[in-house]
Design goal:
alpha/beta; 7-stranded parallel beta sheet; 6-stranded mixed beta sheet; 15 strands; globular; binds 1,4-dihydronicotinamide adenine dinucleotide; binds 3-hydroxypyruvic acid
Length: about 400
């Protein structure tokens, strides 16, 4: 028998039992679920990462839907348990859903939601922040200052990289990769080289137009190139930022061999998922190449770092905070996790619309890139469910809205 897990209950007489494996910011999401006749149970366990056993205990004998986290292992065992409890909907509070075995969800007929589009700017901004911090050695210089080592200006003190006119490389030029590329091209007048399985026409058009603008103003125009392979990006770029999904094609994309092809003074940024980089090989590369620098938001064995990484002066490491930003929306200023608040509303729309429609017969929102209709605080969410990643496999109809 699984150990009981502590919970807080909202709307005990609600018709649908929905479990959230974590408490999330604000009360709007709770009210939305209550309005949809849900009994909501929020896990209040103190530990950060719940085990599969903990989640099985939360699911219990009857559960209609679960809102879960990217730190949880949603595989065969959990989908079997959810299905046995009558569950039909699972929402992952994240853009990335590499922690979810979608085939297992399909097998048990559970719809899987994620939250694309709500963290694009916040993640791109963190990647840009890490790029700048690495280029100008901000963290190292800050440590030096605090240690009382500064005894006067010197011509060679903490010489870093000037970004203007250098080349920024993006691997995975989807929503976040493209937003980051625009920031670096427009903000620092960098040239762009990118690799993606698909052409990013909008991004190319943007860089072309910006290049023409600069030229018309008597400045050096920026350029773009779509690389035919990832290695082309690694060889040519001065700053490389990783933004692909994590799947078997991108696991250890950056490894000993690919690191060896990069410029000795290149900067590598990872705000995608840790296992895209072979972290052991990275530590070794950092040791051998003191002017090679990295900025990491994500780690291979999160929350842990591979031995030696934390001691490397040429590494900037932050604890998966790309989504943690404040945002002003008209007159509202929300808390630190504003971006997550937006994301939660998307989740709530998923769970409640799926349950109301009993899965079948309820349309799935047609465009996973358009989340704005779900984010308006004053309007009810549209009568469709945003971003169900396995809609096609489950034969769910798509909204014509
Ligand atoms: N650090 C953080 O807090 C956050 C991390 N993320 C991560 O960022 C990832 C990307 O998010 P979005 O840009 O919204 O997704 P997206 O789906 O718009 O972009 C991903 C891109 O990767 C490309 N891709 C897939 N396989 C590839 C390969 N083998 N080589 C090169 N490109 C490949 C796809 O074609 C696509 O254009 C998410 O899957 C998630 O893991 C997302 C939000 C926050
Ligand atoms: O949404 C995601 O994929 C995240 O990593 C959130 O921080």
């Amino acid at each position: 028998m699984a150990k009981p897990v502590s919970i807080e209950v909202w709307n005990p007489n609600g018709k649908y039992r929905v479990v959230s494996t974590k408490s999330m910011p604000g009360t709007r999401w709770i009210n939305l679920l209550i309005e949809q006749d849900c009994r909501l149970e929020i896990c209040t366990e103190k530990k950060t990462i719940l085990s599969v056993e903990d989640i099985i205990a939360l699911i219990g004998d009857k559960c209609d839907g679960v809102i879960g986290q990217l730190t949880e292992d949603w595989g065969e065992t959990l989908f079997a348990a959810l299905s046995k409890a009558g569950g039909k909907a699972f929402s992952n509070m994240a853009v990335g859903y590499n922690n979810v075995d979608v085939n297992a969800a399909n097998k048990y007929g559970v719809a899987v939601g994620n939250t694309p589009g709500v963290l694009t700017e916040t993640t791109a901004e963190l990647a840009a922040s890490l790029s700048l911090a690495a280029a100008r050695r901000i963290v190292e210089a800050d440590g030096f200052m605090r240690a009382g080592l500064y005894d006067g200006w010197l011509p060679h003190l903490f010489v870093g990289n000037l970004l203007k006119g250098q080349t920024v490389g993006v691997i995975g030029a989807g929503r976040i990769g493209s937003a980051y590329a625009r920031m670096m091209v427009e903000g620092f007048k960098m040239n762009l080289i990118y690799f993606d399985l698909y052409q990013s026409t909008r991004l190319e058009k943007f860089v072309t137009a910006y290049g023409q603008f600069l030229k018309a103003n008597g400045e050096q125009p920026v350029t773009w190139k779509r690389a035919s392979s990832m290695s082309e990006v690694l060889q040519e770029a001065d700053v490389i930022s990783l933004h692909p999904v994590l799947d078997k094609t991108t696991y250890h994309l950056i490894n000993k061999e690919s690191l060896a092809t990069m410029k000795k003074e290149a900067i590598l940024i990872n705000c995608s998922r840790g296992p895209v980089v072979d972290e052991v090989a990275l530590v070794e590369h950092l040791k051998q190449n003191p002017m090679f620098r990295v900025g990491l938001d994500v780690f291979e064995d999160e929350p842990y770092m591979k031995p030696g990484l934390g001691e490397m002066k040429n590494a900037i490491v932050v604890p998966h905070i790309a989504s943690a930003s404040k945002l002003e929306v008209t007159k509202y200023t929300f808390t630190r996790h504003q971006s997550n608040l937006e994301l939660i509303k998307t989740l709530v729309s998923q769970i409640s619309s799926l349950l109301q429609g009993k899965i079948k017969g309820y349309p799935v929102w047609h465009d996973p890139n358009r989340v704005d209709p779900f984010l308006n605080e004053n309007a009810p969410p549209p009568a469709a469910s945003p971003s169900i990643v396995n809609a096609k496999a489950l034969g769910l109809p798509v909204s014509k809205l």
